[in-house]
Design brief:
- Helix content is 62%, strand content 6%.
- The protein is mainly alpha-helical and 525 residues long.
- It folds into 2 domains: 377 residues, no CATH class; 120 residues, no CATH class.
- It has a 5-stranded mixed β-sheet, sandwiched between helices. It has a two-stranded antiparallel sheet with strand order 4-7.
Length: 525
Amino acid sequence: MKTCTCPAEDMPGRNSLYARLSACLLEKPNAVIALFGVYYLVQIVVRLLLPPALRIDEAQQVLFAQWLALGYDAQPPLYNWYQQVFFEIFGTSLLGLAVAKNLMLFLIFAIYVKLADAVLKEKRLVIVAALAFFLSPQLFWQAQRDLTHTTMLMLTGLWAIYTSVRLLQKPTTLGYVLTGLAVGLGMLSKYNFILILLATLLAVWFHPKGRERIFDRRFLLTIGISFLVFLPHSIWLFDNLQFASDVTLRRMAEEAPESRWLQILTGIARVLLGSAIVIILPALMLFACRGTRRELERQEPEGSSWLRFFLHYFLALGAVLLVVIISTTMTEVRDRWLLPLVMPFPILGVLWLERKAFDVASFVKKVLPVCLAVMALIPIALIVSVPVQAMFGNTSRSNNDWQVFRHHLQDKGITPSLIVTSDWFTGGNMRFLFPEITVATTTYDDFDPAFRLTADRPVLMVWTTARDQSAGMAQWLEAQMGATLKDLGIQAFEAPMYFKVEGKMQRFSYILIKPENVIKTAGQP
């Protein structure tokens, strides 16, 4: 087995465990992939140690796992399909959620390392690019706790960029096929993949070999495969375009000023601010790795071409975003939306370091220990974040104790035939509590579950907000049953959080629908 070596002047104290680890990470990109593999295995364990309350994106995945569809809501369905595979393997469980999410994040870093390795001649910069990417808070914190479709977009977006780079280096039929697959899956991950696609295409176009690759007959394979992969969902999208776009357009136009010029300036400002928030820590890390030596005289033309490739990517991305801002009322831009778009920034930065100077000693002594410490502390921070918030009187979705509701129903001998909720967060957690019972929400009308209402198997309507939400659920249920409901009595109780928060309780309200609550039963299932 080949051992990792590093120049003695760059690696003082070579006999220490840290020195050997540093040398291995610096010289072997596969060791970097292994490092993230270990990290995300730890994160699987961390999720299992956290309270068994689903966060909002997790709840949606559990709810959608009840049925397979070509489309569900304003997001494409790829992550939903992906998650269902893990539920089939591990059951509807925290383990299924944790393995799916952390495998996805691991694959993102594996492809990121491969992309950096493909464009860098100085292999010791691969670990720098990977760790700089990791330091984006939206990645190491937000994506770890929530973000589903966004993480899928990051994976497919990186895959599309990586296969494009490999095609520029060496055109193969398999490369064109894989690029088409990446593009098709990218459009199934999140609709704003089109921004990454356009920016990548323009970067390829301006590469010295780019037009030759685009005009290759095999490029038709890329187009055809991407079209075939996206085709089934596109049929659903054609019939549900307004439904799929309304939510996104409303979010993009939140708190928009009346003046059109102010809308444009606000949109530009928020894109710039959001991008800065995503890249500030990676940029500081790259700045800390800079050397004091003069610019290298032996700069390779190929290295310059990759630097220009990523510069063209960001210039094209900026132009595309400007067009979007001008043509739509896009004034609300969240940093997590920008994360998949600007994720090549650390690679651009290390390409610049490669041209200037990379201070290996400074990286090993100052930067790498900090990054490894962050990787060690984040799992601990995730575990203690919920009880610490509770200690300071703050509540969070992760601190909800849904099990008390299950125990409450069991104590009363209630076994529902159907659970109805008004939102996917409550619905997903109900389904997680009762995996053997169908859960429906008034949010998704395309799910029409079959059920039978009997005296010992009532329908349960449940909500957790202070506001009475029974009217909408009753209306939905009447439409499903072809019946009218009467004498609906609300029952409610309060319980402490998973970690008790002084002065705050969680409230559960519910209604039991029994045969005596139903009139005009013609057409009832």
